[in-house]
Amino acid sequence: MDIVILAVVIAVVVLGALGGLIVGSRRKKQLPPPPPAAPDITAPPAEPHVGDEAETPREEPRRTIEEVDLPDGSAPVVVEEPPAEAPEIEIPEPTAGRLVRLRTRLSRSQNALGKGLLTLLSREHLDEDTWEEIEDTLLTADVGVQPTQELVERLRERVKVLGTRTPEELRTLLREELITLVGRDMDREVKTEPEDRKPGIVMVVGVNGTGKTTTTGKLARVLVADGQSVVLGAADTFRAAAADQLQTWGERVGAHTVRGPEAGDPASVAFDAVKEGKEMGANVVLIDTAGRLHTKTGLMDELGKVKRVVEKHAPVDEVLLVLDATTGQNGLVQARVFSEVVDITGIVLTKLDGTAKGGIVVAVQRELGVPVKLIGLGEGADDLAPFEPEAFVDALIGE
């Protein structure tokens, strides 16, 4: 019996040992393998050469941080920008004989007046119907009623005395009468050099759209071409970019521009312009005023204020009224109102190279009693010319 019990115990022990071995082997198979240890990598002392050029690396001298000049931190590093290039100064075309050089441009649109009159006067019989046609031609050319009647009367008398009428005689006759009508003896010099002081002061006035600011810039070129130094006053503070436009014109010929804030006081800008002109020793100060509508009474009053403020420095030597020649007789209404606010001393007629009719020169002079001093004959920078009656009439009647 004891032997049986001992055998059972031994069997139980053996079975337990075998079971433990089996479980242990299974657990070992389920565990993941440990991560491989990172190998120690030793950086090479220097970049090796390849192939036949292989050689033993050798130490080379290297710059250290102490050998590099570094800012001490006491002041910020300033990077200098290249200076902006100054605009190139242009040399304007001389004004002497400029109207003669531009005569072809003028004659393209004006010959209808002169050639029409020559054709009518060349008829064999000058009856009443012909003279009425001559009157209509003059009126259509914006000469005006009174000047037209005067010219027709003189022509009738001279043709009657002349008798025979060759084409050359008629052309000479018509040329003389038109020059008389335009006004040979009127003073057309732009007053910019008063004898007792510097600078001369010129105000430029006119209605919106007549080319007033552009005319002011072109006038600066005319004066610079004649050897005068110019300061521009951008007193048109109501129109956006008017001051920029005027300054651009000035920079092209080296003229200094005085300007103020947009919608600022025009009289203040005009006052400062004359003040700086004095300090700089300039010959002329040109003041571009706002292109105000002549129907706005308050704005017209302000134009008078600009003139009064400027005259605290010195009298205004010229007040030039810029008129668009294409408006014809309508421009006379503008001229009349402006002359009541400021004393107009001269007329600038622009756009005479377009559809304008040459007779407006006569009409506006009669209306204001002041001469046309400058005429604009195109969009070019040097297309503003001093008015010369003889050259103007020659352009009207052609060769």
Describe what you observe in this structure.
The mean pLDDT is 80. This protein has helices at residues 2-30, 98-101, 103-121, 128-140, 145-162, 167-182, 212-225, 242-253, 266-280, 297-310, 330-341, 360-368, 389-397, and strands at 200-206, 230-234, 256-258, 284-288, 318-324, 346-350, 372-376, 384-386. The protein is α/β, with parallel strands linked by helices. Helix 3 (103-121) crosses helix 13 and helix 6 (167-182) crosses helix 13 (389-397).
Fold topology:
Elements: H1 2-30, H2 98-101, H3 103-121, H4 128-140, H5 145-162, H6 167-182, E1 200-206, H7 212-225, E2 230-234, H8 242-253, E3 256-258, H9 266-280, E4 284-288, H10 297-310, E5 318-324, H11 330-341, E6 346-350, H12 360-368, E7 372-376, E8 384-386, H13 389-397
Parallel strand pairs: 1-4, 1-5, 2-3, 2-4, 5-6, 6-7
Antiparallel strand pairs: 7-8
- Proportion of β residues? 5-15%
Strand order within the widest beta sheet: 3-2-4-1-5-6-7-8
How much helix, percentage-wise, in residues?
Answer: 40-55%
Number of strands: 8
Gap between N and C termini: 164 Å
Secondary-structure element string: HHHHHHEHEHEHEHEHEHEEH
- What shape does the CA trace take? elongated
What would you call the structural class? alpha/beta
Rg on CA atoms, Å: 46 Å
Q: With helices defined by DSSP (H or I, 4 residues minimum), what is the helix count? A: 13
Output mean pLDDT.
80
Biggest beta sheet summary: 8 strands, mixed
- Which blocks of ≥5 consecutive residues have pLDDT under 50? none
